[in-house]
Amino acid sequence: MKCAKCGSELPDKVSYCPYCGQKISKYMARAFYPRFIWGIVISFLIVVALLGGMTFYSYYQNTHLPSFIGLTSKAAIVLTQKYGLPYRIVTDTSNYEKDTVFEQSHSKGTPVDSVDELVLTVSLGPPVAVPDVTNLDEQYAISELSSSGFSVGEIEYVYSSTVDKGKIVKTIPEATELTTPGAQITLQVSKGEKIILPDLEGESFEKAKDVLLELGLLVAQDKEYSDTIPEGCVVRIKPYSYAFEEGDEVTVFVSLGKGTTVPKVTNKTEQEAIDELHQAGFYNISVIYEETIQDSVSGYEGKVTRQSLTGKANLTDAIELSVEKPFVDIRKVNFSVNYVGGVDVTISFKNTGNKVINYINVEMAYYNRVGDPARCDIYDTHIMTLNYTGPLDVGEQQDAYWDATIYNSATACLWPKKITLIFQDGERQTIHNNTYWYSSDYAGGSPKN
Q1: Are residues 247 and 342 in the same domain?
Q2: Nearest to 95 by CA among 124, 69, 54, 134
Q3: What confidence tier does 27 reach under pLDDT thresholds 50, 70, 90?
Q4: Cα 71 from chain centroid?
Q5: Of 228, 247, 325, 443, whose CB neighbour count within 10 A is largest?
Q6: Are residues 186 and 209 in the same domain?
Q7: Are 7 and 28 in a shared domain?
Q8: What is the pLDDT confidence band of residue 31, given thresholds at 50, 70 and 90?
Q9: Contact (Cβ atoms closer than 8 angstroms) between residue 327 and residue 352
Q10: 310-323 pLDDT tens trace
Q11: In this structure, are residues 237 and 198 in contact, taking their beta carbons and an 8 Å threshold?
C-alpha cells in the first residue's frame, strides 16, 4: 500500500506515513488502487498505438513508391530491384548532375502493384552548344568536334556554290544549337559547285575536249557510226548525267560517219558467209576454226559460230569469222575379221583444214550384228583407241591400217565416236561423230552405247 499524499510505499500496520506524517486510513488504499490500474491500462494503450503506427508505416513504405529523384542511376536500379519493379532507363539533358535521376514516370506514393513499368529519366548533364566548324577542312572539323566531346556520325558530300570543295557546309545539329553532351554530329562536306555539261552534240572533238577540260573534267575518246552526225563530230557523251564533279572522267563518242551495215552471217556455211560479206563490200575477212561437235565428219561443211563485227562498220575494217569445221574428212571405214577372230580396220583420212596434222587418235566402238557391244575376248572392252601418225599435209588423203584391233569374231559394226587431231603447231581439235559403218549382215540399227 502507498501513501495517498506522497506515494511512498508504506510498511504494514502503520497509522501514519513515516515519510510525510500523513495519517493512514483504510480508505486511502482503496482510493489509490483504481488510479494505479488506470495508469497501467493507459500505458498499455500507448504502447499498442506506437507499435501499430510503426507497423503501418513499414507496410506503407514497402507497398508504395518512394522518390527516386536525386539518386544515381546505380542506386535507383538497386531500389527498383528491392521493390521488384520492372523498370526502363532513359536519358536526357537537364541541370541535374550527370547520371542523376531527375524524373520518374509514377509519383511518390503510387501503389507498387499498380506500376507496370517504372521509367526513370537520368541526366546527361546540361545541354552543350555545337561548335561552329563551317568552312573548315573536313579533318580539322572532325578534330575540333572531338576536342569538344562530340563524335562524328555520317559524313554527307553535297554540292555547294558558296563553300569550297572539301570544306564543311554545315553540321546536323547546326552550329551553336544546344544538344546532348557527346552526341553524334553529321557533317555535310562540299563537293564543290555542280558541273553542268553544255550541249556538245555535232561539235568537233577538239572543241568539245577544250570545253570539258576547262570545266575540270577528264576526257577520253571513243568512236562509233552515226547516220545523222558528220564524221569527226561529237555523237554523245558517256556517262549521261545532269551534273558532274571536278575530276570526273567522261567519254566523248566521235562519229565515224554513216558506215555500212555488216550482214549477219552466223549459222551460215563458211563459203556462204564470205560470199555475203563480199557482196556487202567487206573483203578484209579472216577465218579461224574451232573445236567441232557434229553429226558426221564425212563431207561436213562447217558453220559460222561468231563474227567479230556487227552493226555499222567501215568497208576496210577487218572481220574475223569463227567457223565450226572439222579439219579431217573420213572418206571410208573398212573392216574385216581375220582367221583368228581379230578385227582388221582401214580408215581413209583427208586433211580438209589449213594446217598440217601430225597425229589422229580415233576412239572406235565395236558392235555385233544386233547392235550390242562386241567386247574384246582378251581386253574385255568394246572401245579401243586407234592411233595414226602423220604427217597429213593440207589437202592430202591417206589410208591408215590396223590389224587385229580387237578379238571378237561377231563384230559387224564400227563407230568412230571421237576423233582427236593434233596439229604440227601443237594445237588440237576434237570432233564428235555420229556416223557408223557396218557389214551387210548387220541388223542392229543405231548402235547402243
Answers
A1: no
A2: 124
A3: very low
A4: 48
A5: 325
A6: no
A7: yes
A8: very low
A9: yes
A10: 988 888 899 999 88
A11: no
DSSP β-ladder status, 184-190 and 151-158: parallel
CATH number where 288 lies:
3.30.10.20
Q: How far apart are CA 232 and CA 126, in angstroms?
A: 69
Per the structure, the count of domains in the chain is 6
Residue 247 placed within a domain: yes
**Residues 319, 343 share a domain:** no
Q: Are residues 82 and 16 in the same domain?
A: no
Check residue 387 and give left, alpha or beta (phi > 0: left; psi -120 to 50: alpha). beta
Q: What is the mean pLDDT of residues 94-120?
A: 91
> Phi-psi region for residue 166, left (φ > 0), alpha (ψ -120 to 50) or beta?
left
User: In terms of residue numbers, what domain contains 83?
Assistant: 73-123
Residues 278, 292 within the same domain? yes
Three-state DSSP state, 328: strand
In a domain, 237, yes or no: yes
Residue 374 and residue 396 in one domain:
yes
Q: How confident is the model at residue 51 (pLDDT cuts 50, 70, 90)?
A: low
* Residues 334, 421 within the same domain: yes
Give CA–CA dist 370/448, Å, rounded.
Answer: 10
Query: pLDDT, tens digit, for every residue of 119-176?
Result: 999 998 888 899 999 999 999 999 999 998 899 999 999 888 889 888 999 999 999 8
Question: Does some domain include residue 444?
Answer: no
Report the C-alpha gap between 260 and 321 in whole angstroms.
18
Nearest one of 279, 261, 275 to 304, comparing CA atoms: 275
Q: Give the mean pLDDT of 225-250.
A: 87
What pTM value is reported for the model? 0.39
